Amino acid sequence: MAAVGSCASGSGTTGSVGAAAASKNVTSFQRKGPRASGTDSGGSRLVSIAGTRPSVRNGQLLVSTGLPALDQLLGGGLAVGTVLLIEEDKYNVYSPLLFKYFLAEGIINGHTLLVASAKENPADILQELPAPLLDDNCKKEFDEDAGDHKAPDSNIKMKIAWRYQLLPKMEAGPVSSSRFGHYYDASKKIPPELLKASKWHGFFLPEKVPSTVNIEPCSLTHGYIELLRFIQKVIYEEGFDGSNPQKKQKNILRIGIQSLGSPLWGDDVCCTQHCASSHSLTKFLYVLRGLLRTSLSACIITMPTHLIQNKAIIARITNLSDTVVHLESFIGSDRETNPLYKDYHGLIHIRQIPRLNNLICDVSEVKDLAFKLKRKSFTIERLHLPPDLSDTVSRSSKQDLAEPAKLPGPGCGMTAGGKKHLDF
Amino acid sequence: MFPELNNLLNTSPDSVEQGTLTLLCDAGTDGSFLVHHFLSFYLKANCKVCFVALVQSFSHYNVVGQKLGVSLTSARERGQLVFLEGLKSSVDVVLRAEAEPHPLGFLREAGAGNLQPLYEFVREALEPVDCREAAWRSPVLLVDDLSVLLGLGVGAVAVLDFIHYCRATVCCSLQGSIVALVHDSGDAEDEESDVLLNGLSHQSHLILRAEGLATGFCRDVHGQLRILWRRPSPPTAARRDRSLTFQYKIQDKSVSFFARGMSPAVL
To answer: Which GO terms of the molecular function aspect are on file (chain B) (predicted)?
Structure first.
């Protein structure tokens, strides 16, 4: 037994198997060995950066988009070194939310942020970030709860159905900051002390573009080349490209670029069908990806693709990005009043998922996805048809359903018939 | 390389056809698995390969290559593989102040791109130098993918010219082969892309066209591959059908091909 004990101290797995074999009641359902407590603290070198985890499929380091549901759809998260392109919805109501979730996730995890915009001052964007669900009261309660339950839990080792032990215990409650992917309360602003503690760089286009005319002729629109230089400078100076090995703690740079390609960036790709600088945007994306691939950074871009007149450019932009997600809101379309979609605010289309270090990519099986903006959170769900409610439960809602259907009806006879039918 | 695809194409690394232009084309799906196939195929066949990789980083191709049984790192050290990494070079070209000549120098220019430096790069890479180099068999130019060039401001005609020059050099005088991938933009109304695709289809000897399924996403069938021989296949084969269509499923390390509707998941 002593030999087994020493063995256990040496290498966990074999030792505990030996110990298990030595104990009396061995069933075939016995666990092989205690899993390393907390998968987060696994010995892998990659996990040493907060808020990241390696991909199950290709070993690529992933960061969360700030929306765990979206992470799941993208195959676990956004791979470091890649671009996530959000095609904005028509009135730009929902895409800023995704943008802010991405940045807020960076702040919680202590990542460095780089926010670029031509419209709003980056400092203002940061003020508007949603508050993480880390409320102190809530947390205290949760800790007490956890304390009460945890003490007996840790003592009792399940002999049968031990797989239940592996289930994450704190599913519903607020989460600690070390976890991958957080939940946010969109109705509240992020606490200023969190913002103060974070490190961020802002790129506000009107401040950066000189009013003088000494702009050298270049293949890229001036704002784009300035932004690329800025990103390159940050990556180089802060050692995100791995050139600064003496830096102790590796960190992730999260880049957010707002409404890229809009006329405010000085790009005419949105304005005309055959514009002079139609390659500016695609070139920018290409060089940006080149920068990202060689550094520890991930980038989110929102782009008003519905403004781009030339469809060919959209196809090229998609090909030159890594992950592409399209938001289609119901605002202003006839779907807004369609009873089929009454539970949702829009559809979300995953246009492209990159193949990294692999022949295949993680495509989610579900293609029909819808989103909904609740009071506090943005949720992505599988698109369901509303349930067919029985008459006894709620007749009123069924009448609601019938109302819009009645409208296009040609004659009153039909509608009357429909009503009659409903009255049963 | 995928042995099943070799069977379909009637080739093997021991008998490499020379002087051909193979066009890979994808429509509504991702055809990069074909690039990986040809890369590993020619490396295994001991050919001297010049790989113009504009889409992904070297490590990506290397990791996938290892799954298919070739090591790009060692091939590069041996001198068998000349690798041009477009993403990495683009940063240097665009953001570096001094203007030194680079194969992708057109990125810096404002006007229509000039691909002559890229052609010079390919020619230098593939031209046999000494007797030491003679260890490699016929030279191969592999491009992933030509559509990226359109996005980077190069006109379709310039790309066609580039391929024409490469054909003259690689296929004719050096007795090698060219493999290039192009996206078919489909209904995106991309005129330049159509010009490029039609022009290349006209020149090429073999066309492999990967298409997504018309009915949409399927878990067990990832798409269909159309193989079109545009010139008589080797006399030994003596086949009458000039085009074949198969459905395929990409797996972790290989691709399985089957006749239409004969997916193992269906049967």
So the answer is: transferase activity
Please write the tens of the pLDDT for every residue from B114-148.
899 999 999 999 888 765 556 788 899 999 989 99
Backbone phi, psi, residue A199, to 5°: -115, 125
Q: In chain A, whose CA is at the least distance from the CA of B219? A: A365
* Alpha carbon of A290: minimum distance to chain B alpha carbons (Å): 4
Q: Which chain A residue has the Cα nearest residue B149?
A: A283
Residues whose CB falls within 8 Å of the CB of residue A383, separated by 6 or more in sequence, listed in order: A344, A347, A368, A369, A370
ipTM: 0.93
- The residue with tokens 């890979």 is B24
Structural domains of chain B ordered from first start: 18-206 (3.40.50.300)
CB contact under 8 A, B67 and A359: yes
Its pTM stands at: 0.81
Tell me whether residues B152 and A217 touch, CB distance under 8 A.
no
- Are A359 and B33 in contact (CB < 8 Å)? yes
Distances (CA, A) of A209 to A203, A231, A261: 10, 15, 16
Tokens of A315: 């196809």
CATH assignment, A52-142+179-210+222-328: 3.40.50.300
* Cα–Cα distance, B186 to B210 (Å, whole number): 13
Supply A114's token pair. Answer: 């780089």
Q: Which residue of A has its CA nearest to B191?
A: A312
